[in-house]
Amino acid sequence: MTQRVIKSPHENLADAIEHVEDGEPVLLEYDGKPLAAIISITDLKLLEAYIEQLEDRIDREEAAKNLAEIAREGTVPYDVVRRELHLDSE
After folding, report:
1. Is residue 90 in a domain?
2. Number of domains in the chain
3. Rounded to the nearest 5 degrees, what angle is found at the Cα of 13, between the Cα atoms of 35 and 34?
4. Digit-coded pLDDT (tens) for 15-55
5. Which residues pair with 6 in a beta bridge?
6. CATH code of the domain in which 35 resides
7. Phi, psi at residue 74, to the nearest 5°?
8. How far is CA 89 from CA 43, 79, 80, in A?
9. Is the pTM above the cut of 0.70?
10. Which domain holds residue 26?
11. Please, what is the end-to-end C-alpha distance for the chain in angstroms?
């Protein structure tokens, strides 16, 4: 990855974009701190796909934990919940 130190956020943008066009991510640093990264559209799409896959995996794991808890502890019937919350219209 190329690293560029810039004096203002607008400096060297064209140079950074040229490196990205060559397939090389560019890290922009300002005032001694990382400011931003510029990546290609291809890399962005890949990153988005990985994030989506990770979120799906996390959701599946959470659902499996919830189903295991239900199997262990059971559920509360709807009419009991309504009664406990005083939602019955008698």
Report:
1. no
2. 2
3. 15
4. 777 778 777 888 888 788 888 888 989 999 999 999 999 99
5. 30
6. 3.40.1620
7. 80, -170
8. 57, 12, 13
9. no
10. 2-39
11. 69
